[in-house]
């Protein structure tokens, strides 16, 4: 399973980036990592949906998106673009506003 996180700044603490994850991020094992608030490939709805399609093609695994919903119009535009391109994630997770990673 692959989850593409949209619009979330994450601090990955020392225990998280190990082995392949540390290597993929290009940081030494045991070093904290600050993930950017968005994927660099995702600048608008069209590029975000294209990125989901690309990850599905490469990973060969279920691919979903996780995001914080600021405005319902943002989700509506994203779903309209998914329909236009015929590309849909396998799952969608809406993150709550109750706090961040600890």
Give the structure's gist in a few sentences:
With 102 residues, the chain is α/β, with parallel strands linked by helices.
Which short descriptors sum up this protein?
globular; three-stranded parallel sheet; 102 residues
Overview of this protein structure:
With 102 residues, the chain is an alpha/beta fold. 35% of the residues lie in helices and 22% in strands. The protein is built from three helices and five strands; from the N terminus they run ββαβαβαβ. It has helices spanning 19-25, 45-59, 72-85; strands spanning 2-6, 10-12, 33-35, 63-68, 91-95. A three-stranded parallel beta sheet has the order 1-4-5. Strands 2-3 form a two-stranded antiparallel sheet. Strand 4 (63-68), helix 3 (72-85) and strand 5 (91-95) form a beta-alpha-beta unit. Helix 2 crosses helix 3. The longest helix is centred in the middle third of the chain and has 15 residues, at 45-59. Residues 9-15 have low confidence and may be disordered.
SS class: alpha/beta
Q: Reading side by side through the largest sheet, how are the strands ordered? A: 1-4-5
Mean pLDDT level: 75
Radius of gyration: 15 Å
- Strand segment count: 5
Strand count, sense and closure of the main sheet? 3 strands, parallel
Beta-strand content bin: 15-25%
Shape assignment: globular
Order of helix and strand elements from N to C terminus? EEHEHEHE
Q: Helix segment count? A: 3
Q: Which residues form runs of ≥5 with pLDDT under 50?
A: 9-15
Topology:
Layout: E1 2-6, E2 10-12, H1 19-25, E3 33-35, H2 45-59, E4 63-68, H3 72-85, E5 91-95
Helix pairs in contact: 2-3
